[in-house]
Amino acid sequence: MTAPSNPTLRLQYRQLYQNSLRYSLLGTCLTHRPALWNQVRKSHTAITADPVPLRKQLKDEARRKKAEKKASPKSSKTLDPRLSRWELTVGLEIHAELNTACKLFSPAATSLNAEPNSHVALFDAAFPGTQPQFQKATLIPALRAALAFGCEVQRKSSWDRKHYFYQDQPNGYQITQYYEPFARGGTLTLTQLDGIETSDCPEVTVGIKQIQLEQDTAKTILQPPSTYLLDFNRVGTPLIEIITLPQIHSPTTASACVRKIQSLLRAVDACVVGMEMGGLRCDVNVSVRERGTTAEGLSEYAGVKGLGTRTEIKNLSSFKAVENAILAERDRQIAVLESGGEIEGETRGWTIGQTETVRLRGKEGEVDYRYMPDPDLGPLIIGQDLVDHLKDTLPMLPDETAERVVNEYGISAKDARTLISLDDGDRLEYTEAVVETVMQRLASLPEKQSFDKVGKVVADWVLHELGGLLTTAGVPWETQTVTPERLADIIVHLQTNQITGNTAKKLLAHYASLQPVAEAAIPSVSKIIDTSGLRLVPLTEGEYIEMAQKVMAENPDMVKAVREKGQKGKIMWFVGQMMRRGEEGRVEAEKARSYVERLLEV
Amino acid sequence: MSSESNGPLFGKLIAIKDNISTGPSTPSLATTAASNTLRKHASPFAATVVRLLTENGALIAGKTNCDEFGMGSHSLNSAYGPVKNAYVRGGHALSAGGSSGGSAVAVATRQCWAALGTDTGGSVRLPAAYCGIVGFKPSYGLLSRWGVLDYANSMDTVGILSRDVPDARTLFRILNRFDEEDPTSLPPSVRARLSSADAGEKPDESARNARALRIGVPTDYCLEELSSPVHRAWIRTLNRLQDQGHQLVPVNLPSTKQALSAYYVLAPAEASSNLAKYDGVRYGSRLQDPPSHQEAEADKSGKSVLFSRYRGEGFGDEVKRRILLGAFALSAAAMDNYFIQAQKIRRLVQDDFDRVFASPNPLHTASSSSSSPKPSSAQKPAHEASPPQSTRSKVDLLITPTAPTLPPTIDDVRQQDPLATYTNDAFTVPASLAGLPSISVPVQTAGRPRSGAAADGDGGWGDVGCAGVQVIGQFGDDDIVLRMGEIVEGLR
């Protein structure tokens, strides 16, 4: 193949057809770099760059929010008196890149950071005489997304061309599903844990109008002053567009909704590149209406009546931008209406750091996309068997997983969510591996052990102890070197009173600081305990009695209270004192209590 | 694949219409669709049909002139200048027909053994009729469109221009292959249902081949524009066929009258979409002139007119006219009144044909299995039961004139209103809308020899001595159409 005649684009066309792509039903022809702790872990995520972990992003945002709250009193949280008169209504349109090996209509590979113009099939570059070839495998993640929102998958959908001229769109049109989308009618429920506005608590349900499949455009890179470089790698990458009903009434909830959509898409492996990497983009429709007015004379959208005239804010690329743009647009619309003006149905833009949205084009300047059914593409027929199979094999959704983890491990709902959201589920998988090992080890011991708290203990160690160590050291999760077996080993020693909690923490810190070396070269937990003399020696009977007597001698009033007034509850106070005085971990509460009771003669 | 040296087309010269990609293996052949927008465009890949030709030993003779992107009925709308018919009337060159006029002239003047053209609304059949040769448009979806530059892709069909029907059949058999590169290529599962799949091997097919055929004569085709020499040639052909024992049956195709209007809404609509890619960013050379003051201002305001200027200068008038027509037909305000209405007419035209043909339309009777893509979004699988029609009135084929008149002179065409030239397609468009196989075969007018071989005494060419007669068959009945074409050809 030769490059096209225009050299300024520096396109390189390769024999993409030589890449024999194999599509299995589950789309597992994808690559993934597993964490160091388990290089053979099976996975089905296609990420090639390290995104900022969601948790970190959430934390950063929370921190920013706090700072902003302090700086400006006009936050979404503070009560604006005007809001008792005006109600905000928001609908979202979210574009998400599907996790697929190839493009929607060509066998060229999808890519994130590949060399520019290295994954471009003839059709992607709109070569004259080329036609689209629908890649069936792209349906798998699309269907998973639809199922995650409880949408009804349409047996028949179709493809339409949406026309507009722009250099990032080689065909002059985008292939989308305007007239007949492949999925309709889902819902998304948001709770307090999802970070919705307090007034929306305990939960709010947002309807999903439809989900459609469509093509992404090329990437334009501006080289000032007037050169545009085009990277066609992204052209034709499959996107889904998720359109919600206008059922959101707060900027915070809108942003929480986008966040939750991202986490759901990630959980079902439909979209793995987050908003921070441009894998997810959002348009919002914003309107306000006076509370208590009737639907008469107001707008309607997809069956939702009584709406004010809406404006659309395009291309928001962060959760923060979604929230702030809606906030600014809400306030602008209220100000216009309160001064007797009218809202114009128009498209507006938002730049991070600004306080106002900017008008891009009004209704008269609206682009007529001249939608036309694509004559090259027949209808898309999706068999119920495929839908059923994907439904049966759909990974547990985050809310369900959180519920399971709370029930099984007895940890808080908040910790459960954190565990699930971290490292694409890797942290949860790790935790479960540790729990399993600890349980097995405890079960094999001669003495009967209590199991009920193991899950919580392990989760605490993974999240807080190990997590804290890694954060302090600035080590990303993928490169941490403590295997689940090692952590389990430490926890078993702790649970069976062979070491103190302090010792356990020191051991973990030691293992976490090791450079990755061959497993055999690392000394075992029990070896370190023995060679360093860390093993906990239980108190003898004499030591218990001596300690109890000492505490009693120092607190004659307490002794009196128990002996003479019969305040038996005070016994535990003595136990507590002994626990505090004894060397960490050596005083066992049950034993201490029996000695105190004996000495107090109760 | 046969090796090139003993392929069935070994050594045969075949010309290729310039909107079919010839690729790098046939060096220095550009693929420009006779447009300035693609003046230097050399396609990096060959169309599947071209590859099949060369794999079977053919030699690509060259690229032939045509109407820009196939838009025209006289091959005058070309960036390279007009195509001239070899035939002359009173010293004036005749129209070669369009849009595959160059291919037709190349065959008629024996510069090649045969040629490929494309037929969207008659662009192979009409020039064949004007140049006195055979032009065959197979059923939509049989010949691959991979590498064929789109005009109106729900109708674009690769067609064959040849000196006689057997040659057309030879080429058709070679090119009739499923191609997975073309999403509208009929898959093997559908091909297996077509009557032409194993022609001559199915007992009922050979029976149909042997017996006398029922020939439908559409009374709706007696337009007032139909000129008397063409009318006479058509009637004489029908009479001779009847003499041979075939049966003539008058049929009604009432939607024919709206077909042309529907075509000139749908084809431009698709064209406006398909030609959107020629925006000056990737193809052709960008304009060399510095931007005008107005453009510079527009650039500053962020409303760059790079695309409009490039497209304004790159496309010819007819292409621009059709893009504007199509863009209008698809605009939100006009969509319902034009595009949607035209699609409905297209459907009625298909229903008309299905009602008169004895064999069912294999696309419409297909079980609605998910694996059988339809050749176009417009050809819907659900087919309402047509009003009951006695089998006696059903036909195997239709025979019509190809064009309403003998070729006009190029001067006459230039005097015509652009819309008036569209009526040339009145007889060819219905089969295009329905995707049906049809062939134009030359028949003598007024007893003159049809071939250009019989030239004037001074070595020049006189007036064309023949008119085109068109045979139309049910979808997939390509072999029967070819057979009838051969019968018509044999009438002397």
What do you see in this structure?
With 602 residues, chain A is an alpha+beta fold. In chain A, 35% of the residues lie in helices and 16% in strands. Chain A folds into three domains: 3-67 and 94-279, no CATH class; 398-531, no CATH class; 541-600. Chain A has helices at residues 54-71, 139-148, 251-267, 319-338, 384-392, 398-409, 413-421, 426-443, 454-473, 484-495, 501-513, 525-531, 541-554, 556-563, 571-581, 589-600, and strands spanning 86-97, 152-153, 156-157, 160-163, 173-176, 183-191, 203-215, 219-223, 227-231, 238-244, 280-290, 299-301, 304-307, 311-316, 347-349, 358-361, 372-373, 380-381. In chain A, strand 8 (219-223) and strand 9 form a beta hairpin. Chain A is elongated. Chain B contains 16 helices and twelve strands. Chain B has helices at 48-55, 101-108, 125-131, 165-175, 188-191, 203-210, 228-243, 256-274, 293-300, 306-314, 317-330, 339-356, 410-415, 418-421, 429-434, 478-490, and strands at residues 13-17, 59-64, 88-89, 92-93, 114-119, 134-137, 157-162, 214-218, 247-251, 397-401, 438-444, 466-473. Chain B is globular and about 70 Å long. Residues 199-203, 366-388 and 449-458 of chain B have low confidence and may be disordered. At the A-B interface, strand 17 of A face helix 8 of B.
In short:
The complex is a heterodimer of chains A (602) and B (492). Chain A is α+β, with helices and mostly antiparallel strands and 602 residues long.
Task: Please supply descriptive tags for the structure shown above.
heterodimer; A: 602 residues; alpha+beta; nine-stranded mixed sheet; three-stranded antiparallel sheet; 16 helices; 18 strands; 16% strand; B: 492 residues; alpha/beta; ten-stranded mixed sheet; two-stranded antiparallel sheet; 32% helix
Radius of gyration of chain B, Cα only, in angstroms? 22 Å
Biggest β-sheet of chain A, characterized? 9 strands, mixed
- N/C terminus separation of chain A: 96 Å
Please bin the fraction of helical residues of chain A: 25-40%
Mean pLDDT of chain A: 83
Order of strands, main sheet of chain A, comes to 2-6-7-10-1-11-14-15-16
